[in-house]
Amino acid sequence: MNYLNITKYVYLAVAAFMFYDAYTKWNDTSDSFWLSFILGASAVFLYFFRSNFAKKFAERDRQEKSNQS
Fold it and tell me: Tell me, what DSSP letter sits at residue 1?
């Protein structure tokens, strides 16, 4: 289960790369920078989405352990 905590940081790395790619395409006056920007924004959204659910699952596990005692 520890790998799930690591994968959310992969989303941040992908977002950073996509924003960099969008920036370089924007400076080259290319019209295709929007796709990189949208993918970067989606990666940021997925990072926060996974973080939120990881907190919910951790809280649920803590409650189940306290109820079992």
Answer: -
